[in-house]
Every structure is written in structure tokens, then in C-alpha cells.
């Protein structure tokens, strides 16, 4: 710190302190990320339909899924 004799180390460190340019922004984003509807549980028949559809797609397009 010999090059900057007028600045003490703690004073210089303050210039690198975090700066909140948008106060309240991150809190607002976190509130928007919350799930507002409960998770829907699939019935056995619905789960089978989805599974069969995905399996059909894997047979038709095997390379698209990286398999």
C-alpha cells in the first residue's frame, strides 16, 4: 500500500463492498418463484398414459433423447 499513502486499508476495502442498486429486487423475485398452486398427484391411469407416450417417443426418436 505504499503507492497510496492517503488511503487506509479499511477505507479502500469499502469501495469493493456489495452495492444494492435495486433495493427489494431480489426479495420480489424470490416471492415470484414460490409455487402458488399445490402439486397435482397423478393417478395410475394418467401416469401410465404419460409413460406410454414417452416410451413411444423414445422408440420413434431414440437419438433425440440422448439414449
Short description:
The chain is an all-alpha fold and 67 residues long. It has three helices and no strands.
- Radius of gyration, in Å, reads 28 Å
| Category from helices, strands and their pairing | mainly alpha
Listing every helix as H and every strand as E from the N terminus to the C terminus, the arrangement reads: HHH
Oligomer: single chain
For the termini, the CA-CA separation is 58 Å
Number of strands: 0
Give the count of helical stretches.
Answer: 3
Report helical residue fraction.
Answer: 40-55%
Q: If you average the pLDDT, what whole number results? A: 76
pLDDT < 50 stretches: none
Largest sheet: none
Strand content: under 5%
Global shape: elongated
Notes on the protein architecture:
By secondary structure, the chain is mainly α. It has helices spanning 9-14, 25-33, 44-60. It is elongated and about 75 Å long.
List keywords for this structure.
mainly alpha; elongated; 67 residues
List the helices and strands and how they pair.
Layout: H1 9-14, H2 25-33, H3 44-60
Amino acid at each position: 500500500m505504499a503507492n497510496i499513502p492517503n488511503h487506509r486499508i479499511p477505507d479502500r476495502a469499502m469501495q469493493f463492498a456489495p452495492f444494492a442498486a435495486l433495493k427489494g429486487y431480489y426479495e420480489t423475485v424470490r416471492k415470484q418463484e414460490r409455487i402458488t398452486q399445490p402439486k397435482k398427484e397423478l393417478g395410475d391411469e394418467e401416469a401410465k398414459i404419460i409413460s406410454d407416450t414417452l416410451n413411444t417417443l423414445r422408440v420413434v426418436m431414440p437419438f433425440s433423447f440422448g439414449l
